[in-house]
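OP here, attaching both records as promised.
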Amino acid sequence: MADPITWLAVASAVVGATGTVVETESAVDDAQAEANIAKSNAEIAAQQAGQAEDAKRKSNRDLLARQRAAFSENGIVNDTGTAVGVQAQTGIAAELDALNIRYEGMLQRTNYLNQALAAKARAKNTRTSGYLAAASQLLGGGMAAKGRAPSTGAPPSSGGTRAWSTITPFKRSGTTPSMKGPY
């Protein structure tokens, strides 16, 4: 049976890892909520831009109608000469205004969608790093319980069945791997 210090080290690692997972999931939930809000804002921006564009086009039609009425009141024929040119220029400028409203709405929508993508990426990265941190805490606690990894990260001077200084990597059956080869 393990001694109480070992149990405390293991319990501490489990509690720490659990806390890390809970924190991680909370941060992931926040980032996902932020992504959902940004997606909703993108759709709202697109709808508002569409409505503003439609309103601008109606306003433009009203302006052209008033312009034709003013030409008629002043005895100017609407379908010839200067009247046609003025109405064409007014129509072009008005359509450009409507298209600019659409473009601004598209930019705003794209901005919100980019925010949503960034929030989703942050959620994914937060989850990955959080679970890695929790795993590290569990492993660190397990190693501390076995006396193999002190908190400083340096090899312990004693503990386990072999001292760290006697562990020789790559030794098998009394031979060391050769660096020579087909390279």
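Record two, same layout:
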Amino acid sequence: MFIAHVDLFNNLLFACLLHMWYAFGRMKPSAQKHTLAVLRVLIGKSQKEMAELVKRSARTIQAIELAQLKLSDELGRQIARATGVNLQWLMAGDIGKPIIDSRGKPYTSKAFDQKQAWINRKLGDYPDDLRWTELSITVFLQVYCGVAISALKTGKFTLFNYKMSKVWDTLAEDFGTGAGVGFTFDMPFPSKDVLDLMPLAVGMVKEVFKTARKEIKSKKA
């Protein structure tokens, strides 16, 4: 009778150990079959944390790493912006090549920490923040105007306007009022009868620069 109880205990213990081995064995580190997995493991993120970083589901990250889902250009760019990893390296999917940063230099977890610190920092922490902000606004306007002119010349401005409206919706949700990006200007918005909108456009640009100078200076105070 005693021996039977011992055998039963041993069988139960073996079953428990087998279950633990199976459960935890399935949680072993990623096989890193995709560059996204290589990046994620290097920066010490779980699939859930990586998903939260780029506002996707953990299932999406898992599917990409298992080659069940192709990494889209949009998500690739978002990951590169959030981590500082080289976009071409990420999209190539060649795990045999060493991971590099946006400048082509070896990528480390420190590079990720620095990128996140830069993204999440408050404007005004550095002396050159105002200059950097004004340059960023200028470059954005240059790109926007350049693409708009190209779209006008090729007869695709309607499509350009449609795609930009999708971008505005996303930006409004992230940074605006939710219903749309809210602007406050010294001048009233013109009625539909006003033909020349150039003064309004110039006024908007001036307002952006004025706001940048006001907000960054107030952070320093």
